[in-house]
Design a protein that fits this description.
about 60% strand, mainly beta, about 0% helix, single chain, seven-stranded mixed β-sheet
């Protein structure tokens, strides 16, 4: 079993900053990539960005320059630094991880989701 635990969401005023964290734990053989998605009310879940084990980072074009993804490989943790937040950034932010696990002697590649953390940008 693998668990992703997110933290750091909350209420922030427009122009403010927040940092989200997501820690992976459990029967992890290796992590291929970790990242963030978000889902605003009435909208589809969309990619925020992700980082691979090799350090390659991809962002949604609309978020480049304001959001920064980083990681602590030793802690199996990915971070999302969000600056200059806007009301339209209000959403539930979900951590996602692409992880290899070992089960009954076999190696499997699986995708996992966190439970989501609410980010609300409002004055």
């Amino acid at each position: 079993q693998v668990q992703l635990v997110e933290s750091g969401g909350g209420l922030v005023q427009p122009g403010g900053s927040l940092r989200l964290s997501c820690a992976a734990s459990g029967s992890i053989f290796s992590i291929n990539a970790m990242g963030w998605y978000r889902q605003a009310p009435g909208k589809q879940r969309e990619l925020v960005g992700h980082i691979t084990t090799g350090g390659s980072i991809t962002y949604a074009d609309s978020l480049k320059g304001r959001f920064t993804i980083s990681r602590d490989s030793a802690k199996n943790t990915v971070y999302l630094q969000m600056n200059s937040l806007k009301p339209e950034d209000t959403a539930v932010y979900y951590c996602n991880a692409d992880i290899d696990i070992i089960s009954y002697g076999n190696r499997y590649r699986r995708g996992y989701w966190g439970q989501g953390t609410q980010v609300t940008v409002s004055s």
